[in-house]
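S.,

Sequence below, as promised.
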Amino acid sequence: MPDDKAAAKRRRFYKVVDVAPEGAAFAVLLDGRKVKTPGRQDVVVATDALAGAIAAEWDAQKDHIDPHSMPMTQIACTAIDRIPVDGKAVRETIAGYAGTDLVCYRADQPSDLVERQTAVWQPCLDWLENALGARLQTTTALKAIDQDPASLARIQVAVDELDEHSLAAVAVLTQATGSFVLAWSVYAGHLTPDDATNAAQLDEHYQSSLWGLDREAEQRLANLRADVHAAAQYLALLRV
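The prediction came back faster than expected:
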């Protein structure tokens, strides 16, 4: 797939989009030729369903190719091009979010916001402890917490076990939500994409309930929701 700047100006150059077996995997074809990543590698994925979703993005393009409307393709290209080269750094970045995780930093007032954070975020932390044996502490202070090294190590081990395509999708979830806990909850099926999005935007929702939501905030929320849904769908189609 071309880089964003070039692809944004590139006209649609193909007529027929298809999926074809490629050994035990599946390739996406444009007029019989395999789609290429920016690194000029074939876009080949593990399941027919995922290849079909990527093909549908290409088929939906009109006169010009808009890369931003093709999240499945972008995740696949990241998995194929970037992860084999920068996988260690990506894994450490994802796990590193747990050290300063969004859901660990709480308000001490007003009381209704405190109650919302506890009701929504604490069950996610409790679940993570049961799932990975990783207990993360919370605080109402601005100063960063020194989380338990053993818990952070368990989180790193879990991330290190992800295959390249799952890792690329979890990276999107983590960056979008600003939280390893919420991203892993979606990856493991503990939270739906909408629940994770709402949890990530809990403070913003609270402020908008008091002061209203401006257009810029609405767009940020829409983009976050779209990213989370796309990554969650990618993971689901990997497992079909």
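Residues 79-238 form a domain with the ATP12-like fold fold (CATH 1.10.3580.10).

Coffee later?
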